[in-house]
Amino acid sequence: MTPDLDPTPPPYLVGLRLQGRRVLVVGGGGVAQRRVPQLLAAGADVLLVSPEVTPALEGLAGELTWAPRPFEDADVDDAWYVLAATDDPAVNARVAELAEGARVFCVRADDARAATAWTPATGRHDGVSVAVLANRDPRLSAAVRDDVLDALRARRPDDTGDLGEDEAGVGVPGVTLVGGGPGDPELITLAGRRALMAADVVVADRLAPRELLGELSPDVELIDVAKLPRGRSTSQEEINRVIVEKARQGLRVARFKGGDSFVFGRGYEEVLACREAGIPVTVVPGVTSPIAVPGVTGLPVTHRGVAHEVTIVSGHLPPGHPESLTRWEALAGLRGTLVLMMAVENAPRIAEVLLAGGRDAATPVAVVCDGTMPGERTVLATLGTLAEELLAQQVRPPAIIVIGEVVAVAHPERFA
């Protein structure tokens, strides 16, 4: 039966307010990876039950409760909403049965007809939430949602009439490197979002804007290539192999990264791999984190009369490491702004070398943690106290470290 002739009554659309309420997600694969970030963004208290999870979900362990075991009947207790997303139909059916008995709405990722709730194609722009259900036609749902969002973005601030039209891109054959920006899904470029939504396969990093994965159509293949700090990590060679292999199958591949693909994102290695394989490759630049993350907190990386240069450095290798290409003694002699990425672990050693090279111990420092994300916070220190503040404030990656007098410009109350 075609969707147009389906005699089933249409669903009743409603907006669930999940802040502080328990949501049960059973299954730790690609479906959960798409849905959990949106649930967290809604403020839900997520219980994730699965013996194994994707690396990206493992990286969310501090934001949800992960029970690394099979589903148990009691897991449904106290849940306001349930998502059954395992690869075992019998388990999903049991979850749905118990949810029905508890009068809790349940989404079944494997069988929409047996579910009591469906997940719409969703999006948000300028305070407006859009949700579309096209009677179990996910591609149509996503297309209508994108048309509405494009119209909202094209609308003039003083426009009270028709929303108008805005032509959206339809994707590029081969591989498209999509820079997703610093984390907030609103900060991806229009071109980036269009390329992402047009893809057949999305190869995603952990720091790519995770909520956007929930907007992908269910028939889009999601490949998790997360790199966890001191944890599971997908090699660059494997990533190159995957994007080339999928493109050779005639699929549109979106290589989805946080920030910009060419700023410590190894993006050009992927460009070279595609070119060597004869695969068409397109680059959609992203809003880069070392500039954007300080910016959203009101911290400029340059300021007239204060800083005439800004230097962006990867701190993933400590000073003195045989593979390091950074001349830290030269950086110590600069007067401008120094922005460190991937440097939380090595920041104490970096501070020591900069101090030994002549940088003033009173130099202001700002550490922006989880920039543009709900848990964003800024830790202030000086170069001389940076190590102890990182420890005292329990700073964990991801974080951007800004060193220089621009910090005092943004925080005069701290650095008089």
Characteristic terms for this protein:
416 residues; alpha/beta; 12 helices; globular
Short description:
The protein contains 12 helices and 17 strands.
Can you tell me about this structure?
This protein is of the alpha/beta class and 416 residues long. It is built from twelve helices and 17 strands. The strands form four sheets. It has a five-stranded parallel beta sheet, with helices on both faces. The N and C termini lie far apart (72 Å).
Strand residues, percent: 15-25%
Number of H/I helices: 12
Report how far the terminal alpha carbons are from each other.
Answer: 72 Å
Give the radius of gyration: 23 Å
What's the β-strand tally?
A: 17
Task: Kindly report the spatial arrangement of strands forming the biggest sheet.
Answer: 3-2-1-4-5
Q: Can you lay out the helices and strands and say which pair or pack?
A:
Elements: E1 22-26, H1 30-41, E2 45-49, H2 55-58, E3 65-67, E4 81-84, H3 89-101, E5 106-108, E6 121-125, E7 128-132, H4 138-154, E8 174-179, H5 190-197, E9 201-204, E10 221-224, H6 236-248, E11 252-257, H7 267-277, E12 281-284, H8 289-296, E13 310-314, H9 328-332, E14 337-341, H10 347-356, E15 364-369, E16 377-382, H11 386-392, E17 399-403, H12 406-410
Parallel strand pairs: 1-2, 1-4, 2-3, 4-5, 8-11, 8-12, 9-10, 9-11, 13-14
Antiparallel strand pairs: 6-7, 14-17, 15-16, 15-17
Helix pairs in contact: 6-7
